[in-house]
Amino acid sequence: MNGKPEGETVLLTYGTFDLFHVGHLRLLKRLSALGDKLIVGCSTDEFNGGKGKTTAIPYAHRVEILEACRYVDQVIPEENWAQKRDDVQRYGVSLFAMGDDWTGKFDDLQDLCDVLYLPRTENISTTELKALIQSMRAGPSV
Length: 142
Ligand code: CTP
Hints:
Structural class: alpha/beta
Number of domains: 1
Largest sheet: 5 strands, parallel
Low-confidence stretches: none
Mean pLDDT: 95
Radius of gyration: 16 Å
Number of helices: 5
CATH class: Alpha Beta
CATH architecture: 3-Layer(aba) Sandwich
CATH topology: Rossmann fold
Order of helices and strands: EHEHHEHEEH
Bound molecules: cytidine-5'-triphosphate
CATH superfamily: HUPs
Strand order of the largest sheet: 3-2-1-4-5
Number of strands: 5
């Protein structure tokens, strides 16, 4: 079995969490309030590379930041798309949750646990932060 304490509610979420921002923080805070233990799957640089995605912050640093977050109890690597079913069973997960940009994408896990999509924090994302930094580096337009 998974060895979790009797009655403990385990939550699981995944993400890249690059340039950790308040949208990430609020999602983790809201999730942690829904159960006893929050596990975060942090996507590795190799997994991101396979998706054509490059991060500003390397995997080891993203993990270090997540582990320091008071709402996070455990960080595991996200290395491929297929591991979610295994992880849900391995860690005795009762609630799988993501931001609502993923709505419907993981409904196939509903035979194993509850699946929830939480509203994203508006007007912030890693993509927008990268664009903002880029425009700041370019300097004021004349
Ligand atoms: N998230 C959120 N609110 C935001 C941004 C992200 O709730 N404003 C959530 C996502 O829905 C996801 C988790 O945080 O469940 C990790 O998201 P991630 O993709 O790492 O962050 P983004 O800022 O969305 O990154 P990108 O712009 O690269 O997609």
